[in-house]
Design brief:
Number of helices of chain B: 8
Oligomer: heterodimer
Distance between the termini of chain A: 129 Å
Distance between the termini of chain B: 59 Å
Strand content of chain B: 25-35%
Number of strands of chain A: 0
Order of helices and strands of chain B: EEHHEEEEHHHEHEHHEEEEEEE
Strand content of chain A: under 5%
Shape of chain A: elongated
Number of strands of chain B: 15
Radius of gyration of chain A: 44 Å
Structural class of chain B: alpha+beta
């Protein structure tokens, strides 16, 4: 009786293992299907990105060509326009140094020009 | 930047005092001047030469040279005058105002009075023989026209003429012009100033005393009186802590020098205003003295 009971248990364990193997196989197939699906999506997105890049390059090239055509139409060659920055205002000390570098005949006019900044006397 | 004592540098004070100096020395426009702010223009005197008045010659028979002459006049740079003032620490501490700055204009006035006093003292009968006797009440535009004619006959150019008068005779001209010449209320009346009359610039000065010869006014071409001035050499002053500021009076280019220094032993802040100059008679025939008797 003991041998029969052992065989029955073994058979039951085998069935259980077969069921588990079938379940894992189903999961594996599902995962493979999902991977294939994602790979297709990634390939589509890459293709779309390449198309957008190509379109952007085309727009840039056409814009530059159009700008040059417009400027040529008004007789102005395209040039780089530097950004101008205002000269820094001289300090009172710098103005006095400049005053002293002038000859006596030029100092009066220089002082009058910069009097507001040079003078500290009460007016 | 220069040293700063009492909060303000000397160049700033000098520049701010120029308006007062310009006003005080404005009548110098009436005389021939030789002013230089260059130290290199050294020498004890300045010599000016006047050409003679030649007559035109007939050139139809050829170009024959006519001898010309010049008359030289020398101005000696023999007057070094100015004014020095200062206040000690205690005096300045108790004052609510900048005491030293307050006296810049009086110093300029004092210097101007000295210069014109020296020039006026040259207007004597020995230097200028021509004269007209005119009382104050009769000194009017008609008198000035007569003086103009006298200078023209003497050969004086019509440009560069001036009349320097004492305040009484200046007032006489102003009254006659106001009552007879100027309609309405105009700037000359508001300011009490006499405009150009018959090509004369008219200057008033309280330095026009009688010179013990009843002198009241002087009609002149600018070459009648000469003045020369030179910048004072201040080499070495800064090495001992003296601030030196040279300036030239606008329009005249007259070089005036300010100095400022502190005396630590007495605690005094000292200012000075100085001028190196000389005056001389130029062409004696180009001036007519106006005397009252």
């Amino acid at each position: 009786m003991d041998s029969i009971a052992t065989l029955t248990e073994a058979l039951s364990a085998l069935k259980e293992s077969q069921n588990r193997a079938s379940s894992l196989d189903a999961d594996l197939k599902a995962a493979q299907a999902l991977m294939e699906e994602q790979a297709v999506s990634i390939a589509a997105l890459k293709q779309e990105l390449e198309a957008v890049k190509a379109a952007a390059q085309h727009v840039e090239a056409v814009s530059e060509l159009r700008v040059n055509e417009v400027l040529a139409g008004v007789g102005v060659a395209p040039v780089d326009v530097p950004i101008e920055t205002a000269a820094p205002q001289k300090t009172r000390e710098e103005l006095w140094a400049e005053y002293r570098s002038l000859d006596l005949y030029s100092r009066n006019a220089f002082y009058q020009t910069h009097r507001a900044q040079l003078s500290t006397l009460k007016k | 930047m220069a040293n700063t004592i009492a909060g303000v540098n000397l160049a700033e004070i000098a520049q701010e005092s120029l308006s007062a100096l310009t006003s005080v020395f404005a009548p110098l426009n009436a005389v021939a001047t030789d002013f230089s702010a260059d130290i290199s223009a050294r020498g004890e005197s300045v010599t000016t030469r006047f050409p003679s008045n030649p007559s035109a010659q007939d050139l139809s028979s050829g170009y024959t040279r006519t001898d010309v002459t010049t008359t030289s006049r020398t101005v000696n740079l023999n007057t070094f005058f100015g004014f020095v003032w200062g206040f000690n620490d205690l005096e300045r501490s108790k004052s609510a105002i900048m005491l030293n700055d307050l006296f810049i204009q009086p110093a300029a006035t004092a210097l101007g009075r000295k210069v014109f006093g020296d020039l006026w003292n040259l207007v004597t009968s020995s230097n200028f023989s021509a004269s007209e006797t005119i009382t104050a009440s009769n000194f009017d535009r008609g008198s000035i026209i007569d003086l103009s004619a006298e200078l023209t006959i003497a050969g004086a150019p019509s440009e560069g003429r001036s009349i320097i008068t004492n305040p009484t005779y200046y007032g006489s001209i102003l009254k006659t012009l106001n009552s007879a010449e100027f309609p309405g209320f105009i700037a000359e009346k508001s300011e009490g100033s006499v405009p150009r009359v018959s090509k004369f610039d008219v200057y008033e000065t309280d330095q026009a005393d009688a010179n013990a010869q009843n002198l009241q006014a002087f009609a002149m071409h600018r070459n009648a009186l000469l003045m020369a001035a030179r910048r004072v050499d201040a080499t070495g002053a800064s090495q001992v802590g003296v601030e030196v500021e040279d300036m030239v009076i606008p329009g005249l280019n007259l070089p005036v020098q300010m100095r400022r220094w502190y005396k630590p032993d007495t605690g005094e802040l000292i200012y000075s205003l100085g001028l190196l100059y000389g005056v001389a008679v130029g062409r004696g025939e180009f001036g007519v003295r106006v005397v009252s008797a």
